Structure to design on (773 residues):
């Protein structure tokens, strides 16, 4: 098994853990955490394909991931602010209870 | 047998492994988490001893092992491990004290539901702390520095259901973060001007002559040398972490954590990391020492901050009533001593005091923990009392710790390290103020420790809990005994010759300028002890409500000291208020200006919609009605799918994703 395969397997595992967390948890913070895990799985893929790809010298994979991390940080800040707003509104953060957008 | 710099990573790796085991083991599986933590820590202790053995073979030699972490374009980021006597002594101290405190925690946290988590956090802390010690790169040190801060946050807030503990954890994290910003800026500046963050790198490291000469040669617009500015920024991080004035406010609040945490993190190891950092970058801090033209030397600032902290902490400690807060302010004061020693140019004396302080302060905190555990979490010394006969072992060990901290002569290690610091301050030719501050703090230290002992252990029990206190089991008293023996035995590091200081810095010259200073400080210690006993020991406290004798004498001063000189109020009134105002401004901006704009656009939309509708209803109705009815029907059916439940959507996305992936795999990817 080449190192690339190993990295991809790890990222797949991480993605599955994140997906299971996001689907199975009812606490919105933990759902957000699951999403972050999936995002990081994607980041590992970026790094892996860059590192073992055709041009590992240019830093584009790394730069891409740095941007993804920055975006993820901003997203986490917005997400947590939303969760606090929801908590103030309905006094809990169960995802199942926020269904006011129902059609 | 020795351990080389190349395999130094094993020392932090073992506790990290134990933390991982603790994290994934089941909650009720207590013995696995605690056992692996203690085992890992004791093996790390053995490894540290081997490393020390190796380092002492060639004390002047900085053995290092550097490796590439990653490269980005043409830049390579390198990390490394460093093995010299400073690192090795610190590692031995951290692992030894850590092991004892882990064992003590077995007894102290026995009834806690989150027992397993506690050991997981403790191991994680130990791993980060040891990583910080062995780092040969300011970057690696900074990473571990932040991890240590995280562990401290988790452990202060370990009883997070108490609002005061949650608030204290947040306060500690944010306050130290202010200092860390300075440290980060210093690191970036250093990297920008020297192109490396490795301490030692065969002539290219930032602590080696070539870089130091070029850094102290650059002069900034304000007249400072570049090395002074970088040194002061790095010192900001140490101020935050080591609870120095003006960022000391978090350390006393950190006592909300469990007592073993206070002993390990907020007395013996983590808070000393700031002192370690300054000692590590000492060549950089002192690079400007020979420049006569600069307005201020970095080390002068360090000395004065240390002197202020030492005096202020000792003063405030005299007026506190919580047994752990007295010890916390005593820690602040002693850390001030260490900074003072660094500032006056004797980093070896600072490290000596750091090591002895770690042992006797851990002893004092564990003794306090033993008292608190026996008295069912009663921490107010006014409500304790009379524990001398009920807890003989704890009392004897606490008294040894108290004498070591007060600097009772000859037998106790604290005396020798304090002596070394006062001696260094005496020899400093810039100013004598730090020496006077240090001497005043000697009296105060002996005074408040006598008060603490008299109130806690003498007299009669003044509450139900103290009445029923009894000695703890051996798992809690044995660590006390071992630490007490060490608190005395470490005297041999300085007597008959200053062995430790010579090992740390073989080129060190310690001139012996007679015994005048030593006799003076012995007199001062005696004065502090007898004053304390005269005020608190002669007439012992009878009831909880009885006022403190000093409160009669100077109520205003004591009230100010009990209120910790109002620093918390000052920060709440300035920084806190600015923050609140900014937030209110942002809120108003969002609500009225941006919100107003959005609302205006929405009203515009509604208005144009209304106009449209008028046109529609008047001119275009008719045949469209039938079409729209059928669209509405299908729309209603589709809207059933719109449940509003985020989980439902997520599930659909996930299933669709899997179907897509399967289709791609089946169809073959080109």
């Amino acid at each position: 098994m080449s190192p690339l395969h190993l990295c991809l397997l790890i990222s797949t595992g991480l993605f599955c853990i994140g997906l299971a967390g996001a689907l199975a948890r009812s606490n919105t913070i933990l759902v957000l955490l699951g999403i972050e895990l999936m995002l990081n799985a994607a980041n590992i893929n970026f790094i892996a394909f860059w590192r073992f790809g055709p041009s590992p010298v240019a830093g584009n994979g790394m730069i891409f991931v740095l941007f993804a991390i920055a975006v993820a940080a901003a997203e986490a800040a917005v997400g947590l602010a939303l969760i606090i707003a929801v908590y103030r509104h309905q006094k809990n953060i169960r995802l199942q209870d926020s269904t006011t957008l129902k059609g | 047998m020795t351990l080389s710099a190349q395999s130094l990573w094993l020392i932090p790796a073992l506790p990290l492994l134990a933390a991982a085991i603790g994290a994934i083991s089941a909650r009720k599986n207590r013995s696995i988490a605690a056992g692996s933590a203690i085992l890992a820590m004791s093996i790390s202790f053995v490894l540290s001893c081997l490393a020390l053995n190796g380092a002492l073979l060639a004390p002047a030699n900085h053995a290092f092992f550097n490796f590439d972490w990653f490269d980005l374009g043409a830049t390579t980021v390198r990390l490394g491990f460093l093995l010299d006597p400073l690192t090795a002594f610190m590692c031995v101290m951290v692992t030894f004290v850590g092991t004892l405190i882990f064992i003590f925690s077995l007894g102290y946290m026995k009834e806690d539901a989150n027992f397993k988590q506690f050991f997981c956090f403790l191991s994680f802390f130990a791993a980060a702390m040891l990583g910080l010690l062995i780092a040969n790169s300011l970057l690696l040190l900074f990473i571990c520095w932040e991890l240590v801060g995280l562990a401290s946050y988790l452990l202060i807030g370990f009883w997070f259901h108490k609002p005061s503990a949650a608030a204290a954890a947040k306060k500690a994290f944010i306050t130290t973060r202010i200092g860390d910003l300075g440290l980060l800026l210093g690191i970036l500046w250093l990297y920008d001007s020297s192109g490396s963050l490795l301490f030692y790198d065969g002539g290219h490291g930032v602590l080696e002559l070539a870089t130091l000469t070029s850094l102290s040669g650059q002069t900034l617009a304000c007249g400072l040398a570049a090395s002074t500015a970088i040194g002061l920024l790095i010192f900001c991080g140490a101020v935050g972490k080591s609870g120095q004035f003006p960022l000391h406010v978090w350390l006393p609040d950190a006592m909300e954590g469990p007592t073993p945490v206070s002993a390990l993190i907020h007395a013996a190891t983590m808070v000393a990391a700031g002192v370690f950092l300054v000692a590590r970058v000492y060549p950089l801090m002192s690079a400007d020492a020979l420049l006569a033209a600069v307005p201020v030397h970095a080390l002068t600032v360090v000395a004065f901050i240390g002197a202020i902290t030492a005096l202020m902490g000792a003063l405030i400690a005299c007026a506190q009533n919580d047994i752990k807060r007295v010890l916390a302010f005593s820690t602040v004061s002693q850390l001030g001593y260490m900074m003072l020693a660094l500032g006056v140019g004797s980093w070896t004396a600072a490290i000596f005091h750091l090591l002895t302080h770690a042992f006797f302060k851990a002893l004092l905190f564990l003794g306090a923990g033993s008292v608190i555990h026996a008295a069912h979490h009663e921490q107010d010394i006014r409500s304790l009392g009379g524990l001398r006969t009920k807890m003989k072992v704890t009392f004897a060990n606490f008294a040894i710790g108290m004498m070591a901290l007060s600097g009772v002569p000859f037998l106790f290690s604290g005396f020798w390290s304090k002596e070394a610091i006062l001696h260094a301050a005496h020899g400093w030719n810039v100013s004598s103020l730090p020496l006077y501050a240090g001497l005043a703090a000697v009296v105060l230290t002996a005074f408040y420790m006598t008060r603490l002992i008299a109130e806690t252990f003498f007299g009669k029990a003044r509450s139900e809990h103290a009445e029923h206190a009894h000695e703890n089991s051996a798992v809690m008293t044995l660590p006390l005994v071992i630490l007490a023996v060490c608190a005395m035995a470490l005297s041999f590091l300085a007597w008959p010759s200053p062995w430790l200081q010579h090992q740390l810095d073989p080129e060190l010259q310690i001139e012996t300028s007679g015994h005048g200073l030593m006799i003076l400080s012995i007199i001062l210690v005696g004065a502090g002890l007898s004053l304390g006993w005269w005020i608190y020991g002669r007439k012992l406290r009878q009831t909880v409500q009885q006022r403190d004798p000093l409160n009669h004498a100077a109520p205003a001063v004591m009230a100010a000291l009990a209120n910790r000189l109002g620093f918390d109020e000052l920060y709440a009134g300035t920084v806190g208020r600015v923050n609140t105002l900014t937030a209110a401004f942002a809120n108003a901006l969002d609500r009225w200006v941006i919100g107003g704009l959005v609302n205006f656009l929405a009203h515009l939309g509604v208005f144009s919609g209304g106009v449209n509708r008028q046109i529609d209803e008047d001119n275009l109705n008719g045949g469209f009605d039938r079409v729209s009815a059928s669209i509405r029907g299908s729309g209603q059916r589709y809207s059933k799918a719109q449940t509003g439940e985020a989980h439902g959507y997520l599930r659909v996305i996930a299933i669709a994703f899997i179907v897509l992936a399967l289709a791609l795999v089946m169809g073959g990817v080109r």
